[in-house]
Every structure is written in C-alpha cells, then in structure tokens.
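Hey team,

Filing this mostly as a record. A colleague (T.K.) asked me to run one chain through the structure pipeline before their review meeting, and I want the input and output archived in the tracker in case anyone asks later how it was produced. No errors, nothing strange. Just documentation.

Input sequence:
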Amino acid sequence: MSLEEKDLKLKLIVEKTLSCNAHNLDYVMRVYSLCLNLAINETSVGLDVLRAAALLHDIAKTNEDKDPFGTTNTGSEMVKYILRNLEYPKEKIDAICNCIATYRCGEDNKPKTIEAKILFDADKLDMLGAIGVARLFLITGNKSLS
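Output structure:
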C-alpha cells in the first residue's frame, strides 16, 4: 500500500473518530500541512512517520474530553491498533507513537526526534491567528460545559 493510500485511510479514520469540535478533520489537516511545510527543507525527516503522526496526533481527543480528571490515555493504544491494521512496521509505529506522546507541552516529555519536534511546532503554530483564537474559545467553552 502506498503512502498516499495509507494517508487516505488514516484521514477517513480520523474523520470518523473525532467529534465536531475544535479537534476535527479541518484542524488536523491544518497541522498536517504545517508539518509538511516545516519539513520541506529538512533532509533527515521520515515523512511516513511525520505524516501519520500529524494525522493521528489527536485521535483520542474525544475520549480525553469526556474524562474530567484527565486520566484517559488511550491515544497510544488507538494509534498502535490503527497502524498495525495498516501494516506499518513496528519501528515506524514506535516512532509515530513517540511523536504523539511528546507533542503537548510538558517538562518531562519533550520531543527529541526531528519528526516529533516538527509536530510539536506545527501544533503550536496552529494556535496563532484568528482560527487559533476561535479554537481556543471553543475548547474553553466545551470544558466549562463539562
């Protein structure tokens, strides 16, 4: 299966899984595009890892939003299951999961690989500008309703 075919399958999974909130397919595709733009001059980037990580980085967001204590950590399990079904090799699955585990801000789990750093930066860059501000209001509003 080609990289483009895998991307298409991942997009369909993301679209079905994510709720119609601030973490929807439009948002994911903006982060995906930012990742590809940031990687354009980087020769050592594993694009297969970066593309899958960008598409799947918030796949568990709907489950996390339902957990008022922030203890849900199903993203890694969901990603592994999805990628195994698409026949990604184990080392690629591990690299993709590492990107996803480190894209959020946190002192104890900083991104170390080039792919993880690009995903981290792309996710933060999407917060800038009018769309980012609107998403922030939506996220804050959704949390206050929970």
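Quick notes for T.K.: The chain has a mean pLDDT of 82. The longest helix spans residues 129-145.
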